[in-house]
Amino acid sequence: MSFKVFIAWRYLRGAQGGDSGGKFLRFISLVAVGSVSVGVATLLLALSIVRGFSQEIHDKITGFGAHIQVENIRHGPLIGSDELSLKIQQQDSVISLQPVVTEFVLLRRSSQDIDGVGLWGTDRLPDYLAQHIINGSDNIEPENSPKLVVGNILAENLNLKIGNLVTLLSIRNLSSVESLFGSRPRFKQFEISGIYETFLIDFDETYIFTDINSARQLLGYKEDHVTRFDVMLEDASLAPSISLLLEDSLGFGVLVRTIFEIYRGLFAWIDLQEAIVPLVISVLIFVAAFSVMGMLLMIVLEKTREIGILTSMGASQQRIQQLYIYLGFFVGSLGTGIGLLLAVILGFIQARFGIIGLPVETYFMDTVPISLMLSDFGIVAVVSIILCLLASYFPSRIASRISPLQVLRFR
């Protein structure tokens, strides 16, 4: 071990000086290491939380719908669904395609319990929704009667239980003239088979799910009619380019939209968090770097006599400068290591136990999400150590310029 590394490590570990100076140096050394640790841990947790929010919202939205939705530009049913389905599946990046029949209808539990809901008919329940069934099952296959899966908020509002029979009424294409001549809205009875909870208030309160054929019968759709197609891709980032290709291949009258366009407001909110929060929290690491600079300057003042002695014994200015850069490196490395460990521990506790809660109506989830990324840890660690090295340069220059003659007269 070279004498530069040895002395730098001794300064950090012991910080020996005068009777009062030694205690003070030990204190500011702890403050410097602690500042770096807190800055690194806070920045990593902020990045992990922002990534967690982004991933959670993305999973919820795409879990309900898809990466791309194909529908009629005139808000009517798509005719010739089999032919359209083949054209969509010709795209190489398409991994799944779900036909959907959807319309707003009235759900009647009793003469007092009636509410407007969004009926969603599909071949199978979306995977994300099936994973968030809190009561009953995800079965929507009709047996004795058509099945219905509803959100927990709607179930609470209308006092719906598993096994309850409800009536759905559709007034689609029912004009006022038909009403005058005694035409009735279509209606059909369904059985509640499952209750889901996703913490997306608009979904949990509005959408109900059934098999696509029962939805077609209620709404008066023909067998080859669908409201839209939900398209899942290999990679969500391909959605904008694939949507343009689908528009060209499907022709006029078909509207193709990505999930990022449909829920533009939610994704804009996520992008704002990803851009602003890490930038604001990064200030903590800069503050920590300045605390390292302050610590090294205090050590220079306290160790002036020792620096002069080393210089008089033949230590060059370059070696004295390197000594303090090593000391800054040790402080940055130790503080960064503690910060990384602290971030891992706190992140694991939050991910496992969900200690920090959130208002569901604002954030669409009940606990703070955490997504720890190895790349974030690597980048933050490197940036933190580099900043500490840069902060140690100025004090090292001051130390290297101390004259041995001045030191001998130092009081």
Order of helices and strands: HHEEHEEHEEHEHEHEHEEHEHHHHHHHH
Query: What's the total count of β strands?
Result: 12
Q: Please tell me the overall pLDDT.
A: 82
Radius of gyration, whole Å: 33 Å
Could you list the spans in which at least 5 consecutive residues all have pLDDT below 50?
176-182
How far apart are the first and last residues' alpha carbons, in Å? 32 Å
Percent helix, as a range, is 55-70%
Binned strand content:
15-25%
Note the total helix count.
17
Protein described:
This protein starts with a helix and ends with a helix. The longest helix has 46 residues, at 19-64. Strands 1, 3, 4, 5, 6, 7, 8, 9, 11 and 12 form a ten-stranded mixed β-sheet that branches. Strands 2-10 form a two-stranded antiparallel ribbon. Residues 176-182 have low confidence and may be disordered. With 411 residues, the protein is an alpha+beta fold. 56% of the residues lie in helices and 18% in strands. The chain is built from 17 helices and twelve strands.
